[in-house]
Amino acid sequence: MTTTASLAFIGGGNMAGALINGLIEDGTVPDRITVAEPDTQRREQLAARFGIHTTEDNSSAVMSAGIVVLAVKPQVLKEVARSLAPALAQGRPLCISIAAGIRHAALQRWLGEAIPLVRAMPNTPAMLQAGATGLYAPESVSEAHRNAAEHVLRSVGIVVWVEDEALMDAVTAVSGSGPAYFFLFMEAMEQAAVDMGLPAETARLLVRQTALGATRMALESDLDLATLRLGVTSPGGTTERAIRQFEEQGLRTLVNDALKAACERSRELSEELEKE
Predict the structure, then answer these.
(1) Which of 11, 23, 127, 163 makes an SS bond possible with 18, Cβ 3.0 to 4.6 Å?
(2) Is residue 233 classed exposed, middle or buried when 0-12, 13-18 and 19+ CB atoms within 10 A define those classes?
(3) Tens-place pLDDT, residues 106-121
(4) Domain identity same for 65 and 136
(5) What CATH number corresponds to the domain at position 106?
(6) How crowded is residue 160: how many other Cβ atoms within 10 Å of its Cβ?
(7) Which pLDDT score, from 0 to 100, does residue 100 have?
């Protein structure tokens, strides 16, 4: 198995578009990519933007593919996977599912037991090639197939593997849903800045650039987050006063409870979506 294999995307939504863009920028030849997408306008947009092949027929898209990316909504994945099973059985390509909440065993059952399969949980910053993706595959999936899956997802950001599939619910809670948490915090900071008298545009620029700068410091420094925080927190100063408010109001407990709730909801959705 090589990462020069032809790729078929089943579904041409935003995440598929992000992956296609990342792969092409990483050197994949557009002629080796096919997208199966029912929406005519979306097919035309993808073909015009990337120079790739498009079709409305899922089965024909996968017939000659070495890698198939399942990029449809979780609610329709069972139907799509089962309809693809006969075509997949012929070539047995590597399948990568980026559908949230559908566990490996259910996917394997729908696609066929002989199909090599990797679960992936990317997040929306993948659209800027700044994504974070969790990957899971059982031991039966070969190293070559694992490397191929990693190559596809690494084109849009960092990749981490989890050995226990149950941890994919935690990945979903942390990085899959995570961008929304930061947007909420930034939204709250912007509103607080406006309430203190700053013009809305000034508040917007200050909050977003501060978030960018803090993230870059966290990524590019060898120091842990607590040390970086203390470096900004002068004793008796303004930052210390704000941090004390966060701590006294239970920010850490709130974050812990929120992520546990997201993790639990991920488990619930899996059970709901996988019902026969």
Answers:
(1) 127
(2) middle
(3) 999 999 999 999 999 9
(4) yes
(5) 3.40.50.720
(6) 14
(7) 86
- The confidence score (pLDDT) of residue 1 equals 39
Query: Of the candidates 58, 57, 60, 48, which has an alpha carbon nearest to the alpha carbon of residue 81?
Result: 58
Q: What count of residues does the chain have?
A: 276
Q: Which H or E run contains 135?
A: strand 131-136
Residue that terminates a domain, selected from 135, 156, 171: 171
**Positions of the chain with pLDDT under 50:** 1-2
Both tokens of residue 253?
A: 């407990």
The amino acid sitting at 161 is W
pTM: 0.90
Adjacent-strand bridge partners of 121? 134
Q: What share of the chain is helix, strand, coil (3-state, %, to 5)?
A: 60, 15, 30
CB 6 within 8 A of CB 32: yes
Backbone phi and psi for residue 170, each to the nearest 5 degrees, phi listed first: -70, -40
3-state DSSP assignment of residue 144: helix
